[in-house]
């Protein structure tokens, strides 16, 4: 849906023009029908699992519609709405899965990480598009690098602090505070990502960056191994 709305602008973007819709590989009519069908099936499936999950999914759909047609052009709010989408995914999991030891700090960590990646992506778009950034998206004309760097600095510190509290929370890890040992991995992830965004001028697609940058990928794997080892194998 979002790509359908942005199809003409994406054709002017050096990277997004290669996506299926702007490049012409995918028929917009097919994409529109698929979007509607997938939405209906997903909501019906969520209702079958749990009515609370259905409510969360409807809120997620409303958030996506609001973002695609309006909120993506409102400075700062655009990234906040994107982070809301990631938060709603966690909420959906919480209402469906009976988690024995769930920490509310996870909500904050996920939201802050999404904000961190979102503002990093906005920074990359401004650097990549330079003077044409405002033509691609209205909100980009309201940003500049000093503002984004200050926002990212605030979020960076907040993310690390919140993850530390999350790992320290007794209800979180079943590991008697040993989860604190994973904090250095999170610090390196944040620092490495900032290096890639601000020095190497990357960060347009965080998921691709994770797979393309070997130090970032290795660090993420080591973090996952450490978490599993601490929770399930460390007495």
What overall geometry do the principal axes of the alpha carbons give? globular
Helix content: over 70%
Unreliable segments of 5+ consecutive residues: none
List the total number of helices: 13
Rg of Cα set:
19 Å
Structural overview:
- The chain is mainly alpha-helical.
- It has a domain at 100-232.
- Helix content is 73%, strand content 0%.
- It contains 13 helices and no strands.
- It has helices at 2-5, 7-10, 20-23, 28-49, 51-69, 77-96, 105-129, 133-136, 145-168, 170-173, 183-198, 206-212, 214-232.
- The longest helix has 25 residues, at 105-129.
- The chain is globular and about 55 Å long.
Task: Summarize the SSE layout with pairings.
Elements: H1 2-5, H2 7-10, H3 20-23, H4 28-49, H5 51-69, H6 77-96, H7 105-129, H8 133-136, H9 145-168, H10 170-173, H11 183-198, H12 206-212, H13 214-232
């Amino acid at each position: 849906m979002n790509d359908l709305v942005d199809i003409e602008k994406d054709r002017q973007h050096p990277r997004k023009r290669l996506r299926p819709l702007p490049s012409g590989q995918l028929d917009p009519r097919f994409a529109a029908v698929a979007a509607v069908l997938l939405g209906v099936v997903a909501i019906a499936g969520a209702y079958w699992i749990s009515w609370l999950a259905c409510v969360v999914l409807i809120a997620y759909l409303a958030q996506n519609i609001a973002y695609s047609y309006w909120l993506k052009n409102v400075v700062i709010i655009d990234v906040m709405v994107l982070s809301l989408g990631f938060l709603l995914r966690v909420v959906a999991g919480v209402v469906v899965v009976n988690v024995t030891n769930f920490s509310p700090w996870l909500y904050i960590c996920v939201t802050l990480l999404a904000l961190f990646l979102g503002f990093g992506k906005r920074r990359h778009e401004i650097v990549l598009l330079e003077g044409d950034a405002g033509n691609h998206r209205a909100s980009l004309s309201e940003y500049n690098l000093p503002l984004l760097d200050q926002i990212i600095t605030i979020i960076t510190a907040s993310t690390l602090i919140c993850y530390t509290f999350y790992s320290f929370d007794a209800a979180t890890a079943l590991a008697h505070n040993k989860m604190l040992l994973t904090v250095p991995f999170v610090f390196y992830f944040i620092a490495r990502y900032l290096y890639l965004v601000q020095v190497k001028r990357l960060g347009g697609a965080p998921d691709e960056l994770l797979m393309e940058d070997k130090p970032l990928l290795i660090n993420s794997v080591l973090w996952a191994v450490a978490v599993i080892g601490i929770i399930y194998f460390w007495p």
